[in-house]
Amino acid sequence: MIKKHLFFFCCFFTGAFQMAVAQRESFPKGYFQFPIFPGQKNTLAGVLGDLRTNHFHAGIDIRTQQREGLQVLAAADGYISRIKVQTTGYGNVLFIKHPNGMTTVYGHLLTFAEPMGSYLRQKQYERQSFEIELNPSPEQFPVTKGQLIALSGNTGGSAGPHLHFEIRDSKDNYLNPLFFDFSEIDDKIPPYFTSMAIRPMSGKSRVNGEFERVTFRPVRQKEGYYTVSQPIKAWGEIGLELIAFDAMNGVNFRNGVNCVEIKLDGQEVFAYNMTSFPGWSTRDYNNLIDYATEQRTGARYLKCYNPDGNQYNVHRTDGYRGKLQIRDTLMHDVEVTLFDSYENSSVLRLRIKGEPPQELPVPAEESETVPTVAYLKTEAVENVLKISAFGLSQLTEADIYVNNKLLKLPPSYQISGETVYLLDLRESLPDSIQIGNKLLKTEFKGRIKPNILETYKGDRYTLRFGNQSIFDTLYLAVQSRPNGLTINDETIPLRDAVGVNFRPDVMPLNPEKTHAYRFDGERMRFVGGKWQGEILDFTTRELGNFAIATDETPPSVKLIQSSKKSISARISDGMSGIGSFNAFVNGEWVLMNYDYKRNYIWSDKLVDTLDFEGELRLEVTDRAGNIAILQAEIKEPVVKPATRKKHGTASRRKSAPVRSKGPKRKRH
């Protein structure tokens, strides 16, 4: 294990990073207390900056003994500034504003302490809504340090019981809670590497002779540092990506790393620091990971370079934005250092040999025989279109057609029966490609630039891009079908929504129940939309394959209990998903809590001492507008008395010993 003080490491930062370091050093030590069992050792299931779906994790996940109902205490004096109940996300969540300008956040709560609980329930009944957001005045709910504010739970998007805890500054930036010196957490274990990838960043770049992303498995040596066993040869501008985790004492969870530093031949070229990050656009995270690999495999690689379109200020790089420059035939040393929040560190050492690409000879004159190709495949990577011809019988140039003009493209390299051509999409956006006897249509429509409003109109569709919709130039490719369309594919991330107008060939018989859906593997996910005549208008935050589908099946409602004390049911929907639910007893609205993970709703009375009496009516509506109604009389459950089995009846249980009915033995 290599130890290094993060303060000295971070002091090399300049500009915005000096501000980050100054902010970290100014974090008040001892101001906040730990919100779960303060003073007792605890462990974490997540830290600031963990790579999650569509976002960096914004705080720490405090373990709660794998159960709900632990006391959650206010971390410092302040007042309840926000109370929110939502089906997903943080579930039941409290915000406390503190005199120092900071805010602490407590998520996935089971219940709120009084008087907040009664206040919340009253407002839910007034608005007749389970989901709600309230902003009490500073005088309404003052709290003191250590005061009971809630019980821990598993609500919202939580995958298991825990407390999500955040500390935010006055500008709503997420701060690393572990920099506030909570003694309850121990960490003497260094972070570790699990996978590394190197990718070419331009059409002139190569990794091991190919324009291909290559993964490597770091191996820990007995001396403590990591290496990779495979040889690495590269040329041009290349990018490094990592999967790495931090371990902690007493727990097997894999947490994120706090800092990454990369040196090329002894010179720092990249540094990543997760002291804090802004809360204004969490989806920018998708541009900082290898989003395409995450969509295809689920593996989340952190880009160790500053990608185009990034607005997060969590990097310090050289003049090449952290991309490694290998432009000679020498051996180059690369050192990657990981740091966690407790100054534990690990090092990965690589050697990269510079190897220029080999040019392929192309016949000066075309052969009279047309070369044959088994099949063609294309893939757009950054600004390069990789064209692969498999089983090419004779080396030849590719015919690239751009607006009815012909461009000849020589092959770049051959490997294992694959001939590869590399086209710079910034210069040419092809309509079709012909190699030998195979012709491939590309479906490219145009270039969509970031940071401006753009609209593209097709034959039966219109796409509207806002000035924040995309991170970088999008080489728009669209395939229109009678009942849907494909917009590029799901491996390209969006920063914000794209508007879509689509006119199907044939109007659906029931347009009110017909909406847009996006294919996610074999599943169809509801997107929505509204009809404007014969055109469906919808917005999406993902690209991919869309179809119009009709959902005329109402949700499923299964009553579990309808007694004077409690009402509960299971609700589910097989297509568009649950949109809303309401319960009424004798026409009076009743609050029903909802756990979507269990498809479960249950009653929460406004006045606990009043019994439910009369007729129950449950109304559940899906997002397509189908309504399921269940009506029942409220009655007490009938408890059947236990019956004793007759002697000699077969049973899997062992018979209880029979006590003799003779006279009791006297004690002497």
- Number of self-contained structural domains: 5
Largest sheet: 13 strands, mixed
* Spatial separation of the terminal alpha carbons: 72 Å
3D shape: globular
Unreliable sequence segments: 1-21, 647-668
Number of helices: 5
Structural class: mainly beta
Tell me the β content. Answer: 35-45%
Rg estimate, integer Å: 31 Å
* Count of DSSP strands: 55
Helix fraction by DSSP (H/I, runs of at least 4): under 10%
Mean pLDDT: 91
InterPro entries: Cell_wall_metabolism_enzyme, Dup_hybrid_motif, M23ase_b-sheet_dom
Protein name: Peptidase M23
GO molecular function, one term: metalloendopeptidase activity
Organism: Runella slithyformis (strain ATCC 29530 / DSM 19594 / LMG 11500 / NCIMB 11436 / LSU 4)
What does this structure look like?
The chain is mainly β. The chain has 5 domains: 32-180, Distorted Sandwich (Glucose Permease (Domain IIA)); 192-354, no CATH class; 375-441; 446-550, Chondroitinase Ac, Chain A, domain 3 (Sandwich); 556-633, Expansin, cellulose-binding-like domain (Immunoglobulin-like), CATH 2.60.40.760. It has 5 helices and 55 strands. The strands form 9 sheets. Strands 1, 15, 16, 17, 20, 21, 22, 23, 25, 26, 27, 28 and 29 form a 13-stranded mixed β-sheet that branches. Strands 2, 5, 6, 7, 8, 9, 10, 11, 12, 13, 14 and 24 form a 12-stranded antiparallel β-sheet that branches. The longest helix has 12 residues, at 116-127. The radius of gyration is 31 Å and the shape is globular. The model is unreliable at 1-21 and 647-668 (pLDDT under 50). Residues 639-668 are annotated as: Disordered. GO terms for molecular function: metalloendopeptidase activity.
